[in-house]
Amino acid sequence: MTEKVGVLGKKSPQHTGAERVVNAPLPTVYGKFQAVGYLDHDRGDEQVALVYGEIGTDDVLVRLHSECLTGDAFGSQHCECGDQLDSALRAVVAEGAGVVVYLRGHEGRGIGLLAKLRAMALQAEGLDTVEANLALGLPVDARDYGVAAEILHDLGVRSVRLMSNNPRKREALLEHGIKVAEQVPLLIEPCESNITYLRTKRERLDHNLPHLDAVAHWS
After folding, report:
1. Is 3 helix (H, G, I), strand (E, B) or coil?
2. Is the whole model's pTM more than 0.85, yes or no?
3. 67 is in an annotated binding site
4. Cα diameter, the chain
5. Which among 81, 143, 135, 87 is positioned nearest to 111, based on CA atoms?
6. Cα atoms in the Cβ-side hemisphere of radius 13 Å centred on 181
7. CB of 209 within 8 A of CB of 165?
8. Residue 191 counted as an annotated binding residue
């Protein structure tokens, strides 16, 4: 991978979209990745793709992971995000090659950290995740996956095996010229704290979560 020179945190009038800024080795508890850093000149976000092995161009195992501080860093059981990130990183290592694109600016399905916490407070009072966003006057899902497609294009990826339960991610990649050869389920065993959230994602956001049918308890 060829490193491009750029200045993090500053927009350049010469650039639009995602610019590759740096490529650095990143040893992790899962294995040794290459962390490829990008600057999204349109939104000002700093993005990173974790690349494992020789990924090639076709049918690459890929996860588009939306930033979730509470789940990814704090181990929140309100959602399944942290477990999904862990599973995705393990999966690409087991595969021998793959990419996890970590999408910053996607906190709370794009509404931001503080708004997400406000929505979580409303959910504690009985609203579901969709109702909570709407009660705050916010979109149910404000995420955009254009930058993810740009990153994959830059990495030379033409088609993916997408680790996701969300049909919107597949549709977004197709719209941006990335073929989806397969959608690979990323199913996490639910717990009492997130079962309502997961059921809402299935029933109101069309996520493919068939494993919830086996959960008979936890009303």
Report:
1. coil
2. yes
3. yes
4. 57
5. 143
6. 11
7. yes
8. no
